[in-house]
């Protein structure tokens, strides 16, 4: 077979391009996707991509990261042996929700019922299945129906759990679109939702730190990168 | 005399059109001029631009010339109804003062130190230019998200109860704001007016119809919800109909009105697997 | 030095544990953090961790993902050579940061701690709330204190996150702030300006120039008005 023959020649530069893509990607990349991404980087055909993937797989066979093939294509993962160790990373700090997830949830909240395709239309990018799955698992969204068009896409709406987790009684309490548009009014709305009357008091307490101690011409960045919670929206 | 520099091919693009398309003696369309004028980051930026454009020395600005040019830019901005920060006008006043001092006979030497507005202006221009320059250098540095992509691989398996990520309401709202701004959806009248409660009700009604049953129109109005509740339900039904998510049946005039999902009868069920299964 | 001696012995298992942690982590990990995470995995001391990091760095030196040290510690990142290729993974280009935002950030960088009013003084124009908010949200700046004057304005400083995101270990690695050019000449000019009237006849003649003609020269302008969306990914 010709495949066997070409499998002996690994194009190193293509292999590194694939490695870069897989290391950076949010999910698995299919061979087709890799092919189109690499169109300007040597334009390898699928066979050459498969050869490079095999070489990468072999290279990482002994490392902490492993290249695996899943339903959606190929992806790097941290090897199972380190499950416990890696778990510690999250014990201390819950993972952050991605911007894509937040935007998807916000759109479902404000424009429900709507389908994944409609979310994609507004966001201008595709919405990954894992985002929808996470939101469903979290019980923040639910399927409320289907649009009666070819493919019958599911329509999503928000749930009671969503309201509970965000500590609001009904969607009506959320700021209106004009309020969201105006940053100052949005601040006000957020403070209202948090039941705060005046955040100023809170920040006053943090303010004991003197200018002298903060004087940091030292080149050292201050320890904690997080601004005090109360400042988050000022 | 000023001679316009030869226009090069890497001249600025204005609305996708290279500026060198315009003959030098031709007047610039207001749109293009607007784009230029709107790029100034304030009076100091505009002054620096005027000075640098003519290869003048900051330390030796011909104040009368620069003042006049500055004023014609301000006039142009006002003609185009560009919202002018007050600082532009303040600077205009300061330039006018410098100009008048220069035209008047010299006041006695006892003038207080540091009061010369021209020296002050030179100092401020120099100071601003330093930061403007260094900010360009910082902007040119590779940064995460633009040139740099940190690796974050998912674990094959994870052994702890992963604490669920928390989301703050403000994060959610800001995300929404951003996506709406990006999609320029804030301008749509349709959604500006739509109360959120209608959207919530739409989801609720739609869900009730999913078992394929027909539901009496009247049963969707609960007196307990009051007049507002009725209105919300009514608008929700109209909106669902408009989006062709439900259909309204009435077998004969004055008969009871029923709602169902379009083509009801083929008994749809909630298929959660449908969602995860249809990955791109 | 004892360090030199131990640098020859790399504990492979510890190196792979570190590799797994760094590959999975969301952000850089400091040596201290690695030490505490590895407490049940061989309990290496900081020296051993440093040795392992060096070995990892060498191993990945030629790969598509490289190990780098930034202010917050160590992280893997895709080599910059692949920036353009990897950028194709996302349809949206990263938003361009406005000049106003970058100038504000630069001032906070080099003059921290300073207040919004002080930034406005240098820039000669007011700083919008949304710029400060964006910088706080990105966690590039934080409130480090308050100036004890009426109104108690917040004082801003940069964060570790800022250094990490700009791929440096400390503020010292940022570009140097240009010196005020010709300081002697400036003094001299100021003295002259105070002492004498200079005649402007020559310039008066040129002063007829109108915006129209000024506008038409703007082909050479782009020094300040940058063309839109130019270098988003370069």
Overview features:
heterotrimer, A: about 230 residues, mainly alpha, 3-stranded antiparallel sheet, two-stranded antiparallel ribbon, 13 helices, 5 strands, disordered N terminus, B: about 280 residues, two-stranded antiparallel sheet, 10 helices, 6 strands, disordered C terminus
Give a quick precis of the structure.
The complex is a heterotrimer, with 2 copies of chain A (234 residues) and 1 copy of chain B (280 residues). With 234 residues, chain A is mainly α.
Question: Mind explaining what this structure looks like?
Answer:
The complex is a heterotrimer, with 2 copies of chain A (234 residues) and 1 copy of chain B (280 residues). In chain A, the strands form 2 sheets. In chain A, strands 3-5-4 form a 3-stranded antiparallel β-sheet. Chain A has 13 helices and 5 strands. In chain A, strand 1 (65-70) and strand 2 (73-78) form a beta hairpin. Chain A has helices at residues 2-6, 12-24, 31-37, 46-59, 83-92, 99-111, 116-123, 129-137, 160-165, 177-181, 183-193, 199-206, 211-214, and strands spanning 65-70, 73-78, 114-115, 141-146, 154-158. Helix content of chain A is 48%, strand content 11%. Chain A is elongated and about 65 Å long. Chain B is built from 10 helices and 6 strands; from the N terminus they run ββαααααβαααβαββα. Chain B has helices spanning 30-38, 43-53, 63-79, 86-103, 117-140, 169-182, 189-193, 196-208, 226-242, 273-277, and strands spanning 13-14, 17-18, 149-150, 215-216, 247-250, 257-260. In chain B, the strands form 2 sheets. Chain B has a 3-stranded antiparallel β-sheet, with no helix packed on it. The longest helix of chain B has 24 residues, at 117-140. Chain B is elongated and about 95 Å long. Chains in contact: A-B, A-C, B-C.
């Amino acid at each position: 077979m010709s495949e066997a023959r070409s499998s002996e020649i690994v194009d190193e530069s293509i292999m590194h391009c694939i490695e870069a893509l897989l290391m950076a990607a949010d999910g698995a990349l299919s061979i087709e996707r890799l092919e189109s991404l690499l169109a300007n980087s040597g334009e390898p055909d699928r066979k050459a991509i498969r050869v490079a993937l095999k070489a990468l797989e072999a290279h990482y066979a002994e490392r902490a990261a492993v290249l695996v093939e899943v339903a959606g294509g190929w992806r790097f993962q941290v090897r199972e042996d380190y499950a416990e160790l890696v778990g510690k990373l999250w014990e201390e700090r819950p993972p952050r929700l991605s911007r894509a997830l937040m935007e998807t949830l916000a759109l479902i909240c404000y424009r429900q019922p709507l389908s994944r395709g409609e979310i994609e239309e507004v966001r201008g990018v595709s919405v990954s299945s894992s985002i929808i799955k996470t939101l469903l698992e979290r019980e923040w969204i639910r399927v409320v129906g289907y649009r009666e068009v070819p493919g019958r896409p599911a329509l999503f709406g928000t749930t009671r759990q969503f309201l509970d987790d965000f500590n609001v009684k009904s969607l009506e309490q959320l700021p209106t679109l004009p309020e969201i548009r105006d940053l100052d009014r949005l601040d006000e709305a957020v403070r209202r939702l948090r039941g705060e009357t005046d955040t100023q008091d809170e920040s006053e307490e943090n303010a004991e730190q003197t200018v002298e101690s903060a004087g940091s011409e030292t080149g050292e960045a201050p320890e904690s990168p997080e601004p005090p919670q109360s400042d988050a929206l000022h | 005399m000023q001679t316009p520099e030869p226009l090069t091919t890497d001249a600025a693009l204005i609305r996708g059109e290279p500026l060198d398309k315009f003959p030098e003696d031709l007047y610039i369309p207001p749109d293009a001029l607007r784009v230029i004028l709107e790029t100034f980051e304030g009076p100091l930026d505009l002054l620096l631009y005027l000075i640098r454009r003519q290869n003048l020395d900051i330390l030796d600005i011909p104040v009368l010339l620069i003042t006049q040019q500055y004023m014609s830019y301000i006039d142009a901005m006002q003609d185009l109804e560009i919202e002018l920060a007050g600082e532009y006008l303040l600077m205009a006043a300061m330039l006018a003062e410098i100009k008048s001092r220069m035209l008047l006979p010299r006041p006695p030497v006892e003038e207080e130190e540091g009061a010369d507005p021209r020296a002050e202006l030179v100092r401020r221009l120099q100071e601003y230019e330093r930061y403007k320059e260094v900010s360009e250098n910082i902007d040119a540095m590779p940064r995460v998200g633009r040139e740099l992509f940190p690796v974050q691989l998912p674990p094959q398996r994870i052994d702890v109860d992963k604490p669920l990520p928390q989301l703050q309401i403000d994060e959610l709202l800001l995300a929404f704001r951003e996506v709406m701004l990006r999609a320029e959806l804030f301008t749509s009248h349709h959604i500006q007016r739509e109360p959120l409660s209608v959207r919530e009700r739409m989801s609720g009604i739609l869900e009730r119809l999913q078992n394929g049953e027909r539901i009496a129109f009247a049963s969707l109005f609960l007196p307990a919800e009051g007049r507002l509740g009725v209105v919300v339900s009514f608008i929700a039904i109209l909106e669902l109909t408009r989006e062709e998510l439900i259909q309204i049946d009435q077998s004969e005039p004055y008969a009871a009105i029923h709602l169902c999902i379009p083509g009801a009868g083929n008994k749809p069920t909630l298929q959660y697997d449908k969602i995860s299964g249809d990955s791109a």
